[in-house]
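User: Can you predict the 3D structure for this chain?
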Amino acid sequence: MIAASARLLSLLALLSSRPSWTCAELAESLKVTDRTVRRDIARLRELGYSVDSDAGPWGGYRLRAGTRVPPLILDDEEALAVAVGLGEAALNRALGSDQAALSALLKLRQVLPRRMADRLGELDGAFVRLPGSGGSGVGPGLLLELAGACRRGERARLSYTDAEGHRTVRDIDPYRLVHTGRLWYLVARDVARGAWRTFRADRVDRLQPTGHPADLTDPPDPAHLVSRNIANGPYPLSAT
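Assistant: Here is the predicted structure, written as structure tokens:
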């Protein structure tokens, strides 16, 4: 069963790599018989993938747009390029939806091999953004860390520097990230105070998981809380 599933993924990757394949070419690439190729093509169609075929000795198979999004098979450099692009889109709203870009980037980071995650971390650490250049002052690596903490529902230890330069360390229960159009805010429950607070993401020094579940009882409306707490006026808000 595992071998058959892996073969279907390989078949999808081949069909995605060029406009058309003959049955013989697919069989040779997959090291299977023509009959197995035809059976696997039928299975892909059952799964919702649109695979067209042309009859005859010179006919072939081609994958066209359908109702299902096929899994992408990316090499290392392609995966890095996609991750960097999604990070920039999340920071600058280049796609019109920073939440969608951040969510997609989080999913990608979760499945990257360790070697790729390390390279992406090196790239993030090498980026420098000028003040006023349109960014939010926080790198995609930290945004992913904050978003992951919210998604896991796990208590974390937050090192934070406030507007006056005072650094504090506290336990928090991360809940949501809110984007004002300029800045990202983390909405979390301050465990010691038992109160819901907002923290500017660009002032977060470190976030360390504690291994304990978060207490998210009676959470606030994140956009409303940020709008109420920020001092420099309302901005269009979006929560993720």
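Residues 126-135, 232-240 have pLDDT under 50 and may be disordered. The beta strands are 51-53, 61-63, 154-161, 167-179, 184-190, 195-200, 204-213, 238-239.
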